[in-house]
Design a protein that fits this description.
The complex is a heterodimer of chains A (347) and B (343). Chain A is α/β, with parallel strands linked by helices. Chain A has helices at residues 59-66, 89-97, 108-111, 118-129, 134-147, 152-155, 165-177, 195-212, 223-227, 247-252, 257-265, and strands at residues 12-19, 36-43, 48-53, 74-79, 82-83, 101-104, 183-187, 215-219, 232-237, 240-246, 315-317, 320-325. Chain A is 29% helix and 19% strand. Chain B is 33% helix and 22% strand. The chains are: A alpha/beta (347), B alpha/beta (343). The structure holds adenosine-5'-triphosphate (2 copies) and magnesium ion (2 copies).
Amino acid sequence: MTTAHELPVPLLSVRGLSVSYAAPRKGTHLGTGAALAEADLDVRPGEIVGIVGETGSGKTTLARATVGLVAPAAGTIAFAGSDVGGLRGRARRAFRRSGQVQLVFQDPLRSLDPDLTIGEIVREPLDIAGTLSRAERQERVVESLRLVGLDPDAVLARHPRQLSGGQRQRASLARAISTRPRLLFCDEPVSALDVSNRNLVLNLLDQLRRDLDLAVVIIAHDLSSLAGIADRVAVFYRGRIVEQGPIRDVLEDPAHPYTALLTASAPSIGDEDRLRPDQLKPAPDAPAWPADLGCGFAHRCPFVHDACADQPRPAPLPHAPARQAACHVATTWRERLAPPHPHKESA
Amino acid sequence: MSSQPENTLRVNDLQVSVADGLVAVQDVSFAIRRGESVGLVGESGSGKTLTCRAVLGLLPATGRVDAGRIVLGDGADEVELTGARRSTWDRVRAARVGAVFQDPASYLNPSLTVGHQLAEQLRIKTGLSRRAAHERSVELFAEVGLHDPAGVFHQYPHQLSGGMLQRVLIAIAVSCEPELLIADEATTALDVVIQAEILALLRRLRETHGLSLLLVTHDLAVVAESCDRILVMYGGQVVESGPTEEVLRNPQHPYTRALMGVATIGSWHRRRLDVIPGQPPAAGEDMPGCRFAPRCAQASASCTAGPVPVADLGAGRTSRCVLTTATTATTATTATTGQKVPA
Ligand SMILES: Nc1ncnc2c1ncn2[C@@H]1O[C@H](COP(=O)(O)OP(=O)(O)OP(=O)(O)O)[C@@H](O)[C@H]1O
Ligand SMILES: Nc1ncnc2c1ncn2[C@@H]1O[C@H](COP(=O)(O)OP(=O)(O)OP(=O)(O)O)[C@@H](O)[C@H]1O
Ligand SMILES: [Mg+2]
Ligand SMILES: [Mg+2]
C-alpha cells in the first residue's frame, strides 16, 4: 500500500544484504555468523534515515558495505539505480573517487590520517575528485569547516590529535560534506558533542537535505537526537533489521520487543508513564531459550514461545503498512505485558 | 581518621597548557569523595579531556601542567600526582586509577588480542597466575555485557565494533579494582540497553568497593541518573558546580542555563534543535574576565573588567559569574530570575 506516486525513487536501495567477516584465528566460534544478514533498506533523496540498535549488530558493517569497503556475501546494493555492491577493482575505485557517497567514520582518531593537517584532510576528497580549481577547493574547505562550527583559522594547520574529541568529529563531517555527496552515511556523528554543537550539526544535515536533496543515514545511540531530525528509523539487533518505520511511531509505539527494551532503557529525567526495562526482560525463573535458536532476541524476550524457533521475517504491520517488524508477536505482545512492579504505585 | 568522608581526588587551581603559552585549562579545582560520582559536562573543546589526562599524567607531548596540585587519596594513602615520577605512575595507574577514554581504539595495542591485554595487566598489577588471569578476564568481559566473552578474549581490536571496544576498555579499567575511575565519554558508543547495564555496574562498584567516579559525558540525562555532583566547564574553566539535582533544576551560571535551554535530556517529544548562538573562545585565547561573556545575554561591562572569581553559593554550589557573585548572600532564586544587569 505504498503510495508510489508520492515517494521519490530511492537513491539507495539495499536488498537481502549479508556480510560476513573472515573467521578469526584460534578456532573461536565468532566470525562464523554473519555480521549482517538479509538487510533491506531504502533511502530516498532528501530523506534522513536513522539507524539505532545494539552494539555489534552490524550498523557500521552496513555503512562499510555501502561505500564499498567490504564486499557483500549476498544481496544487492543499488545506488541511483545501478548495482554498486557487485563493483570490483577499477569500477569500484572510480565509484568511490566520485565522492557521491561519503561515510563519516565512527572513530575519527582511527580514520583520520594523523600526519595530515585538518586543512589537508578536509581537502583530500576534493583533490581526489579533481573537479574544482585550487582556489575553489580551498574556499570549500574553509566553508565546510565553518558549517560544522569550527573556526578555520584555529584548526586548519592542526593535526587530528591536537583537537578535542568533538572538534575531530566535526572535522571528519566537514571532510565528508566537502564534495557535496548525494548520499551521506554518518556513523555516530554527534556522539562526542555537547547538545548545542550536536544540534548545530543536526541542523546542518537537515539544511543539506533540504537545499541539496542530500540523502542522509545517521547511525546513533542517542534516540533523542534522532527523534529531532530523522524521518524514518531502522532498528538493528544481532545482524538483522528487526524493525523500521516512521521514527515517531517506532519510538512511541515500538512493535518489536527489542525496540521496546531500547526505548525503555534510554536515560531520562523523571519520565512519565513509559514502559520500564524490567517489564521487557524475561522473568528470572523463565526457562532458558537456546541463544542460537531461531529469532536472535528470543533468549532475552519475555514473550518467547514455540514459533520463535523460526527466524521471523520482516513484515508490514497490519495497522500501519509503512512500518515493518520481524517478530511473531509484533501486534500482540502488549496484551501479555506484565503489570508494572508494585513499588511504584501512584494511583 | 574522623567520620568525615575521605577524598579520593583533590584538584586545586589546575592549569594546563597544550603548547607554549596556550593555556587550555585554567584555575580548575574540585574534589571527589570516596564512593562519590561526579559528572563533568561542558562545551566541546572546553578542556574536559585535558583535565582528565592531567589527572592521569597522560597529557599530549606538548602539554604540561603549569600550575596547581593533584592529590590522590587521603591520609596514609595520599600521593601527590603533580610532577610525580614514572615509578609513582606505575604504582598508581590501573591499580589505583582506572581510565576509559574517548576513541577507545587508540588506547589498545592493535597487534595483541584484547584478552591478552587485559590478562597481562591483571598479571602485572595483581600478580595473578596466567590461568587465573585468563579466567578473570573472561569473567570481566562477561560483566561488561559482551556476548561470547571467551571468544572475544581471542579477538584483535580491529575485529570488534566501537561499542565492543569500549566495553573491553571498561573491563580493563575496573579490572584491578581502582579507587578512582575516570570515564571520558565511556558509554557514548554503547546502545542504551548496555549503557544502562554499565552504569548499573559502576553503581555497584561504588557501593561495594567505594569506587569514585569522574564521568565525562554530554548526556545530561546520564548525569542526572548517575552522578551525585556535576561540574560544568566552559572555555577551560569550571563555571558551575554543585549537587546534580540542584544544578539541573536551578542552574546559576548563564552557560549552564543556556545549555539546559537547548538540551533535550532524553526526551524524544521535543523537536526543536536549538543552539547557543556564537562561538566558544579558542583554547588559550586571552580574555579579560568571563569567557562566556561574548555569548551571554546578560553580559555587562563588569563581566570583562577583570577576572571573575568563583563564588561560593553555599550548599556545595559554586558559580563563576559576576551576577551570582553579586547575589551570593541572597537566595538562589533571585539570581535565576534576575535577568537584569546590576546597576
Ligand atoms: N574487521 C572485522 N573482522 C571481524 N569481525 C568484525 C570486523 N568488523 C566487525 N566485525 C564484527 O561484526 C559485527 C558487527 O560489527 P559492526 O561494527 O558492524 O557493529 P555496529 O553495529 O556498528 O556496533 P557499534 O554500535 O558497537 O559500533 C561485530 O560482531 C564485530 O565483532
Ligand atoms: N595536543 C593539542 N594541541 C593543541 N591544542 C589542543 C591539544 N589537545 C587539545 N587541544 C585544545 O584544547 C582544548 C580543550 O581540549 P579537550 O580535548 O580537553 O576538550 P573537551 O572538553 O574534552 O572537548 P570534547 O567534548 O570535544 O571532547 C580544545 O580547544 C582543543 O582544541
Ligand atoms: Mg559501529
Ligand atoms: Mg573530550
